[in-house]
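Support request from a user on the community tier.

User writes: "When I paste my structure tokens into the form, the page sometimes reloads and wipes my input. The last time it worked, I copied everything first. Here is what I submitted, just in case something in the input itself triggers the reload:"
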């Protein structure tokens, strides 16, 4: 049986996200600060997905 979890971490929204008068360019090694936050949030979602899979796999094997 496949379970579907429709939850993801949408990230934290800052007031500065709506600031259109920002300095163009990148202040982060990985590109823009906003892009880096999006990647961190996506990585967090992936980590949570793997933990759910591991938990479900364990439950199927060892729990009645």
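"...and here is what came back when it finally went through:"
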């Amino acid at each position: 049986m496949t379970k579907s979890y429709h939850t993801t971490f949408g990230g934290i929204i800052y007031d500065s996200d709506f600031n259109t008068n920002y300095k163009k360019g990148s202040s982060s090694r990985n590109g823009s600060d906003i892009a880096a936050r999006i990647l961190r949030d996506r990585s967090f979602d992936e980590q949570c997905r793997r933990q759910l899979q591991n938990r479900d796999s364990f439950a199927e094997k060892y729990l009645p």
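Agent notes: The reload is a front-end session timeout and is unrelated to the input. Residues 33-62 form the longest helix (30 residues). The chain is about 45% helix and 0% strand. Escalated to web team.
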